From TrEMBL:
The keyword Membrane applies. Pfam families: DUF1275. This is DUF1275 domain-containing protein. It comes from Candidatus Pantoea multigeneris. The lineage of its organism: Bacteria, Pseudomonadati, Pseudomonadota, Gammaproteobacteria, Enterobacterales. Keywords: Membrane, Transmembrane, Transmembrane helix.
Length: 245
């Protein structure tokens, strides 16, 4: 699920990726809303808000929103550079390592908020979360070759609509080709991504209301465990293949 293999990636692997990473993204988004009243991954809304601040000439909010957008893009760029470098050096677990760093960063942020929370730090924390969400989305997008965008639900809804329209057209034409089968599988992947993000958002808000920033810490720990499990499994398999019987 978290490894880029030479063979063609299966839809089952993409769906598992969507379930884990889109759910985590939805939870983080909801926790940020509960804690700060702000969505760190909602770049469409943030860009629209930035336009509004430009018209109102609110320099402080303009700087904050602009920095948040740049942080998200910066996270995506960082993940891309890490992946390019890792794959160029034959590092098969580079995606796991990127997510591992994200997990530790989330744990560190949540612990900081648990012990040193101050409303004066909210904007800085949101910017850092924006960076991590960009990192998160870029990792899932690259790993799935663009089929799973864990935070970009607007794009996923658009892709799901396109896939559904293609399926309807194929039904009218009575087309049963392999391409239609692939579109049907991809449509299911989009639906799973959307539902995972939605359910993650509901769960994240409920957990934050109950446990506060410990909920964010738990998500970071989950991402760490997921990454480590995939890394260990990959290393064991490679060593087993390489070792003589």
């Amino acid at each position: 699920m978290l490894i880029k293999l030479k063979r063609t990636r299966t839809h089952s692997e993409d769906r598992n990726l969507a379930i884990w990473l889109a759910t985590a993204a939805g939870m983080l988004n909801a926790i940020a809303l509960g804690a700060f009243g702000f969505f760190p991954s909602h770049m469409t809304g943030n860009t629209s808000q930035l336009s509004n601040e430009l018209s109102n000439v609110d320099l402080r909010n303009m700087l904050f929103l602009g920095t948040t957008l740049l942080a998200f893009v910066g996270g995506a760029i960082t993940a891309r550079i890490a992946v390019i470098s890792g794959l160029a050096n034959g590092n098969r677990i580079i995606f796991c390592q990127v997510l591992l760093i994200e997990g530790f960063a989330l744990v560190a942020l949540s612990l900081f908020e648990l012990f040193y929370y101050s409303p004066g730090n909210n904007r800085e924390i949101i910017v850092l979360l924006g960076f991590l969400m960009g990192l998160h989305n870029s990792t899932s997008t690259q790993l799935s070759s663009g089929r799973v965008r864990s935070t970009h639900i607007t794009g996923t809804l658009t892709d799901a609509g396109i896939a559904l329209a293609s399926l309807f057209a194929a039904m009218i034409r009575r087309d049963h080709s392999k391409e239609v089968v692939a579109q049907r599988k991809q449509f299911l992947t989009h639906i799973i991504t959307i539902l995972s993000f939605l359910l993650g958002g509901v769960a994240g808000l409920m957990l934050f209301n109950r446990f506060g920033f410990m909920a964010m810490c738990a998500i970071g720990a989950l991402i760490i465990c997921l990454s480590l499990a995939s890394m260990i499994t990959t290393v064991v398999r490679v060593n087993r293949i390489a070792s003589p019987l």
